[in-house]
Amino acid sequence: MLLNDDRLFPADPVTRGIARRLYAGIRDLPIISPHGHTDPRWFAENKAFPDPATLFVKPDHYIFRMLYSQGVRLEQLGIARKGGKPAKSDPRAVWKLFASHWHLFRGTPTRLWFEHAVSSIFGVNERLTPANADAIYDIIAGKLDQPEFRPRALFERFNIEAISTTEGALDDLKWHDMIRASGWGGKVVTAYRPDSVVDPEFEGFAENLASLGELTGEDVFAWTGYLEAHRKRRAYFKERGATSSDHGHATARTANLSQAEAEKLFAKVAKGKASAEDADLFRGQMLTEMAKMSLDDGLVLQIHPGSFRNHNASLFAAFGRDMGADIPRQTDYVTALKPLLDAVGNEPNLTVIAFTLDETSYSRELAPLAGHYPALKLGPGWWFLDAPEAMLRFRELTTETAGFYNTVGFNDDTRAYLSIPARHDVARRCDCTYLAKLVAEHRLDEDEAAEVAHDLAYRLAKEAYKL
Amino acid sequence: MLLNDDRLFPADPVTRGIARRLYAGIRDLPIISPHGHTDPRWFAENKAFPDPATLFVKPDHYIFRMLYSQGVRLEQLGIARKGGKPAKSDPRAVWKLFASHWHLFRGTPTRLWFEHAVSSIFGVNERLTPANADAIYDIIAGKLDQPEFRPRALFERFNIEAISTTEGALDDLKWHDMIRASGWGGKVVTAYRPDSVVDPEFEGFAENLASLGELTGEDVFAWTGYLEAHRKRRAYFKERGATSSDHGHATARTANLSQAEAEKLFAKVAKGKASAEDADLFRGQMLTEMAKMSLDDGLVLQIHPGSFRNHNASLFAAFGRDMGADIPRQTDYVTALKPLLDAVGNEPNLTVIAFTLDETSYSRELAPLAGHYPALKLGPGWWFLDAPEAMLRFRELTTETAGFYNTVGFNDDTRAYLSIPARHDVARRCDCTYLAKLVAEHRLDEDEAAEVAHDLAYRLAKEAYKL
Amino acid sequence: MLLNDDRLFPADPVTRGIARRLYAGIRDLPIISPHGHTDPRWFAENKAFPDPATLFVKPDHYIFRMLYSQGVRLEQLGIARKGGKPAKSDPRAVWKLFASHWHLFRGTPTRLWFEHAVSSIFGVNERLTPANADAIYDIIAGKLDQPEFRPRALFERFNIEAISTTEGALDDLKWHDMIRASGWGGKVVTAYRPDSVVDPEFEGFAENLASLGELTGEDVFAWTGYLEAHRKRRAYFKERGATSSDHGHATARTANLSQAEAEKLFAKVAKGKASAEDADLFRGQMLTEMAKMSLDDGLVLQIHPGSFRNHNASLFAAFGRDMGADIPRQTDYVTALKPLLDAVGNEPNLTVIAFTLDETSYSRELAPLAGHYPALKLGPGWWFLDAPEAMLRFRELTTETAGFYNTVGFNDDTRAYLSIPARHDVARRCDCTYLAKLVAEHRLDEDEAAEVAHDLAYRLAKEAYKL
């Protein structure tokens, strides 16, 4: 069997017994997925997924970056060069290449997610090997066409109560409209991600700004019009269910300039004359502006800072963004967030959720900040930190200072649709493991741990994100 | 029962058995509390503590910052605004508000400390809930008036062999004098904390300097007089039992200027014309000056760096210092301490104890430094790091490089008097847990572990602090 | 017994059982020691080691830095002052001084290494104490003269398949030639360590450069001649078995200047007119130059950055380099390595191995980088991080992102010859402990764990270093 019922539980029998009981109380709770990158088109069109390689291998950063690190070229995976024709590739050949490198994923979360998905969804209960790769391909491919493996059927089977996609500020959200128009009952909401019209260094920023103006009818080259355009887009998103905005900046820098300073800065930005420092300051100012808009429209503000995007220059030139070469870097929060927190940190009705790729900030900065400011909550382990060991460290490094109730449950943050149940299951098991240790060491009573487990698996995400 | 005898011991039966045996050998050792913030007036006057809320809730940063983070206003806790009238508050109402938020402290050390205190001191053996809050309030309130719950009686019941308070350089130490004059045998000493006359950016620095001059009869606006004034105050403190000085700077920066440079710098400081950089350099210079004075008078030098004080601007404006918004920040030691260490680091008779709020420095900087320099010792986990998980990390991250004998035992560092036995008990249990793991894994023999446990619980603090 | 068969294995019986089985499968594998500092003269001359103190105490940084931190002066250990006469010291007295401080090493890896060596090599099975120090000295001293305790006999007894020493670029490698000429079959190779002719701030850099010119017949004061001289020396080292170069810079900074910029920079360096920034840039440029040479000659590039060398100024003045006062400091990799990675990071046939003294970079920077770039691999825990707890953290912090196969097995990195089997044994046991936990928690199957254990103990080092 690929999936042992006790997976991820600690070996000590007493602790494992507690973990099992805690987990039994939450394993069947619906999934709240408040932040992620699934494609709303899937739910709108409800078409069959094409083939196992396109489903599991090609869209998954965790998979193709590991293969690339060991000498597999992206072309071999059928990933297209920028501006080139769609790469031709035989999905079965990609699958077999993947299978022949499966040992690379030993000890990684990809192993857990993949085996959970193929086992629980497709009934595959053998470890992937070069020898059985063809047979497993056939099993999966044979099911993808069946109605019960279409996106909406899987949504129901996954017991998803609500899921948020993420769309850019200029997106027309037509797939979301189509989902709603369809009468299907699945709750799929969007989130407002305005990086392309907030970051002066984003590719095509000037054109993006012009599009924003067209979409909203505002004079977006003037500061007040620009802000008003954001307000309108936020309202547009909110009408399609959005309960949050999301911001992926290189740092957590925030600013709170005077009206006059902000106008002056924006004038440079709007003319394309912003220096690197101007651009950085502007991004920081916009976080605070977004927080202020949240005071009015109630959207939750998510800050996802600290990634050095597209670190591999030649890969970026050849293949474009999001090719697995985003590398975390050290991230300061204490001074960076202060302007925003000085402005709105004491607002009890605002929710700002800070994420990090830099674990060193958990105990030193983020837990002390979230354990003080009413507006600030701590997001779960993100990206490289959404794996079992890292999740345990998250709890160990934050709970003693911030408690459980200044955190917001789990985010799967994925575009790998079939991995969603697995990711939530891993998070639930890891939280039960952490709680079981507290109980076994008489630091928490089991009835309380059961309540906390439920909160971490379900309630906190639902409430923090208003889903 | 609130207190399980095995609390904080690892679940594995063999390891737990070892931990129990180690702990049995040290549980009844007297408490050495070499650094903390209890009020000497308590011991001087020996009056009854007023009520449960004033005793447990209002003075405890850990408690009110957590409540504040979840929307409780400080006014609701009876905390007075700056310059305002003493806040009116019903202590019973504060207590019930606290009880209704008790779940927030799950997984935090506050939970452990509070339950240890109410159980072992007041015989309360139920978990605090809104339903029993009144009854528990009554139990505690009913005992506070009794003689055996007065400060001195508790001191003896707590088995405190020696405790150090911390007073500012300008303090007249009258309570300490009163304790000594009373004939009571409890050993309560002071520590010299001159931040208010060392830090040019401290509120009221100029007036503080003037007061220092008046107190000492020195011309404190000249460099030599200023240093002499410190020497006199140190002697004054030492006569009242002080064995240490303590310094809470924003960074660990030290400096070792020439006589001429130091005079020139001080001239600016004394005239109130120091820039931010001057002020920082001056604080660094004074750490080295204090270390040099320690060579003469034998006081132990404690450095507590790395806190961004009063991070919440509006809270600071409304309520003043120490309102729970001190946030740790990244702290360098390798370059920062070098001037001081170059000056006095090789002195075998000097003890400089470095603390940190930044765990990343444990294995990278502090353990390697303390494992080399004869004068440097490593202080225990401080503030947010004085909790079980953090204490284990402290040992895991420092022992392999610095051993046990370049550390100095435990500091409770608290003004929450009733939590002192609990804090030392938690530290002792965590050290036994760490040692039991070494024994169970055959990395240390049990007889040696027993000796180390004793050293960590008692001897190292007593010797390092000369108590 | 000093050595328990289960040492370093987790206490939980199930997990321990798995660890035992995994370890049984690898305990007798030959040692691959791809990076270290043993003296090739030992193997060339095959003379007896002089006495226990000279063998165990005097050359071991871990030992004398700890003794120094507790007030033992280096003179007491017979360590000579710079330019002074060889220190006179009675080795037996040094040994007894060491024995009287043996408790300092509780919980440190020195304890494990020393006891493994004296027990398995000399049959000493008592814990060192002041009381038995003389007797143990006699046992060891009595054996050192015997043929089976000479360097080559120990090499064979240690089951060393290959070992690399490290020599400076100007070394004539005569001991390596002598080893080869001797007909002895032990595989002892060298590694190219050019710091003294690459770092403009190295003591004697100008003379070193001149020597490099003499050795190679190149005009090393011109950029092309300088590079050609390196190529020749690398070839010379490669003929003596070298498969790697090694670079110990203060930071991980790399650069990739244009030909013209590099020439201009080198002109300043060659004239001794380089500023601190020039020197730093030049070191960074040379890492990239070395990587480019590796593309041609196949040497593996090792980067060992992040140590503040000779931190203790007065000790450095009195005793010179390598006196235990090298202190790790925070090290950036994300921006530092980018120029080199942009130049050669996508080369699948190049191997660059990055090490760190700063654990914070493991999960944040190094695992994400090594989990993406084909050319980059992650070196094992180094220096203060080559101890059990640190080794487990290394796996916990890197595996989930980089897997096992972007790491390169173990380096003992030592000049303490007799500790080599112990160090490899500790590493093997720690890896088995980590793998056993994965198996016990159903995150990896035991047959796979056995394969990984073999890879980590043997294959990865052999293949990465081409030994």
Automatic annotation (TrEMBL), chains A, B, C:
Known pathway: Carbohydrate metabolism; pentose and glucuronate interconversion
Alphabetical list of InterPro entries matching this protein: Metal_Hydrolase, Uronate_isomerase
Any Pfam family hit: UxaC
GO-annotated molecular function: glucuronate isomerase activity
GO biological processes: D-galacturonate catabolic process; D-glucuronate catabolic process
EC number: 5.3.1.12
Keywords, sorted A to Z: Isomerase
Catalyzed chemical reaction(s): aldehydo-D-galacturonate = keto-D-tagaturonate; D-glucuronate = D-fructuronate
Family affiliation: Belongs to the metallo-dependent hydrolases superfamily. Uronate isomerase family.
Protein name (record): Uronate isomerase
